[in-house]
């Protein structure tokens, strides 16, 4: 089995984060479309989960029953997941460079039917946490110690279904379920507080009875510490509010474009060259 | 008077009651069954299963979207979720969740929509699932079953649990006529000819099967030989039985407790038109929302009767 036994050190994780970022930029620029900035904000969280010793998985046996489950509810950020899975050994870097091309299983949003290891088909926002509840309940019935991690976007929190799920997860005291809200502050047309201000996620989710922790989500050490804290809570569902920056890691490059949101756009080949050099 | 009385059929259980009983009976045979309920288990009858297997029953509250996606998650861990709600709320409220959490990943989830049709009566049009078959049939890979009586509902419940993939089973609220007897066959995708005839075929499902048998009985007195087919599976459709009927009887009437668009009538018309076009007529709710009232009064007012079927038969013969 991979994961816990092979947890990377903090320094190694930081290097791995750069590898993931480079791959995200390369695959989306090659595809000519996609959501690199939404992917980049979540790198530290995905990186820690997959390589920091927080998830049990086996690339050689992706359907191993006792594996932990990772659901990317903000499915448009799938390049960060493809990058992590390539690094974990599910497939090669060359494979993911077929992103979004006809015939490729590396679709624009996760498709579990075409790619073993993807745990949920997402892309219609708001459903990932509910799917995670189902998997957490299923793991409990199967009594196999499997944990479920769901990454949700902050704009996605506008979906009412997420709040239905927050209540249901608490009802069933799902201590094997962890939600991470990637609060990068932007959604398609602008800042989340302008589009639909939901106030404090921490206060609201805590009011549902969840364990909640708020962190600087692009600080790799903070992410690792928060996941350790959450792992020690086993009697109720856990949420980590991960305050991040869209496009983190190449912000000076994106700032040159004058577009701090940079939603749903790949970097041009020229910009990608600059970004890759910046990350080197 | 109830549908099936003319032909001497006895009134039996409601299909939802038969479903609840069957689910409980099958609980041991299928240890993977779990129910996910949106707080209507006492109406949908999943409570019968829940009382027998409380650890396998989840009531997530009045939250259909979450309910359906939770079922998708449970299926992906190897369980067989049965999600029951009123047809109107299951298909209409949670359509995107059915599409993305169940149909697209082809999850082994059984969706059960009860209180379908106008025969639910006094609760009125907001509660009547009359577009559910159309919506369910639109989803790639979805099996769609509409049962006519208690015996076939029990058989359908067993068949859908045996089948690996998403299924929508449509059930009704009132007690309905007994058409089948224990031991009659039920196979997903294979229509049952419940009455032989040569002059015209009535293809029906749900409670309109009893209405079709009534119509056939009455027409026999007038010397018209009517075939009645229970098309309990709308998808995948038994195209062979339909095209054979079109060829042999040269006229078809389709009767269903559903809107005029996108239901059994649309499906049968497509099958007929592709091989052997013959005159066709349709008995259904039309293109409207109904209203509150007693079930029999509603069936009469909206033309879901043996008399309406007879009239349709006379149009095509």
TrEMBL record, chain A:
The keyword tRNA processing is annotated on this UniProt entry: no
Alphabetical UniProt keywords: Thiamine pyrophosphate, Transferase
Keyword Flavoprotein: no
CDD domains, sorted: TPP_TK
The protein's Enzyme Commission number: 2.2.1.1
Domain Transketolase N-terminal: from-to ranges: 18-269
GO molecular function list: transketolase activity
Class of the enzyme per the UniProt entry, highest EC level: transferase
Known cofactor(s): thiamine diphosphate
Pfam families: Transketolase_N (PF00456)
Stated family: Belongs to the transketolase family.
Entry protein name: Transketolase 1
Species this protein is from: Gimesia algae
Gene: tktA
Automatic annotation (TrEMBL), chain B:
EC top class named in words: transferase
Cofactor(s) the protein needs: thiamine diphosphate; Ca(2+)
Keywords: Calcium, Magnesium, Metal-binding, Thiamine pyrophosphate, Transferase
Pfam families: Transket_pyr (PF02779), Transketolase_C (PF02780)
Keyword Transferase appears in the UniProt entry: yes
GO molecular function: 1-deoxy-D-xylulose-5-phosphate synthase activity; metal ion binding; thiamine pyrophosphate binding; transketolase activity
Transketolase-like pyrimidine-binding domain: residues covered: 13-178
InterPro entries assigned: THDP-binding, Transketo_C/PFOR_II, Transketolase-like, Transketolase-like_Pyr-bd, Transketolase_C
Source species, domain of life: Bacteria
Documented EC number(s): 2.2.1.7
CDD domains attached to this UniProt entry: TPP_PYR_DXS_TK_like
Transmembrane segments: none
Membership in a protein family: Belongs to the transketolase family.
Subunit structure: Homodimer.
Protein's name in the database: 1-deoxy-D-xylulose-5-phosphate synthase
Organism annotation: Gimesia algae
Lineage of producing organism: Bacteria, Pseudomonadati, Planctomycetota, Planctomycetia, Planctomycetales
Gene: dxs_2
């Amino acid at each position: 089995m991979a994961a816990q036994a092979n947890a990377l050190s903090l320094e190694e994780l930081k290097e791995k984060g750069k590898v993931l970022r480079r791959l995200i930029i390369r695959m989306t620029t090659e595809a000519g479309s996609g959501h690199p900035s939404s992917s980049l904000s979540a790198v530290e969280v995905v990186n820690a989960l997959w390589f920091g010793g927080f998830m049990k998985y086996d690339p050689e046996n992706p359907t191993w029953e006792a594996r932990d489950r990772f659901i990317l509810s903000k499915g448009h950020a799938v390049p960060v997941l493809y990058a992590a899975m390539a690094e974990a050994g599910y497939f090669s870097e060359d494979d993911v460079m077929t992103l979004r091309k006809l015939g490729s299983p590396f679709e624009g949003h996760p498709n579990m039917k075409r790619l073993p290891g993807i745990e949920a088909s997402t892309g219609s926002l708001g459903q990932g946490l509910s799917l995670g509840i189902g998997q957490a309940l299923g793991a409990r019935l199967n009594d196999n110690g499997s944990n479920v991690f769901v990454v949700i976007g902050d704009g996605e929190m506008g979906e009412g279904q997420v709040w239905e799920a927050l209540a249901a997860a608490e009802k069933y005291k799902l201590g094997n379920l962890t939600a991470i809200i990637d609060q990068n502050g932007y959604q398609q047309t602008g800042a989340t507080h302008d589009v639909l201000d939901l106030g404090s996620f921490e206060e609201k989710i805590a009011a549902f009875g969840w364990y909640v922790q708020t962190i600087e989500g692009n600080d790799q050490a903070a992410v690792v510490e928060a996941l350790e804290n959450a792992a020690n809570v086993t009697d109720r569902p856990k949420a980590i509010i991960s305050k991040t920056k869209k496009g983190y890691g190449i912000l000076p490059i994106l700032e040159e474009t004058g577009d701090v949101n940079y939603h749903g756009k790949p970097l041009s080949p020229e910009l990608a060259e600059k970004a890759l050099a910046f990350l080197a | 008077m109830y549908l099936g009385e003319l032909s001497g059929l006895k009134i039996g259980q409601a299909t939802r009651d038969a479903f609840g009983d069957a689910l409980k009976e099958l609980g041991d045979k299928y240890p993977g069954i779990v129910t996910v309920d949106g707080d209507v288990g006492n109406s949908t009858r999943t409570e019968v299963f829940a009382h027998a297997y409380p650890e396998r029953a989840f009531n997530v509250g009045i939250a259909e979207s979450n309910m359906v996606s939770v079922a998708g998650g449970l299926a992906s861990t190897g369980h067989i979720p049965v999600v029951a709600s009123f047809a109107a709320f299951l298909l209409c409220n949670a359509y995107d969740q059915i599409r993305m959490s169940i149909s697209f990943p082809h999850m082994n989830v059984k969706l059960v929509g009860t209180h379908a049709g106008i025969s639910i009566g006094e609760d009125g049009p907001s509660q009547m699932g009359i577009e559910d078959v159309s919506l369910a049939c639109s989803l790639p890979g979805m099996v769609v079953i509409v049962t006519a009586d208690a015996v076939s509902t029990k058989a359908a419940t067993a068949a859908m649990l045996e089948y690996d993939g998403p299924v929508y089973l449509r059930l009704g609220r009132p007690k309905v006529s007994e058409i089948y007897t224990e031991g009659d066959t039920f196979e997903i995708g294979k229509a049952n000819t419940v009455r032989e005839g040569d002059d015209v075929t009535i293809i029906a499902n749900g409670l309109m099967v009893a209405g079709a048998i009534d119509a056939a009985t009455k027409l026999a007195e007038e010397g018209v030989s009517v075939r009645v087919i229970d098309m309990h599976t709308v998808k995948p459709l038994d195209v062979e039985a339909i095209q054979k009927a079109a060829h042999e009887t040269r006229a078809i009437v389709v009767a269903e407790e559903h809107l005029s668009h996108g239901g059994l009538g649309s499906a049968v018309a497509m099958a007929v038109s592709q091989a052997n076009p013959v005159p066709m007529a349709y008995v259904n709710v039309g293109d409207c929302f109904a209203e509150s009232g007693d079930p029999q009064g509603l069936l009469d007012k909206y033309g879901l009767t043996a008399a309406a079927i007879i009239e349709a038969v006379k149009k095509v013969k």
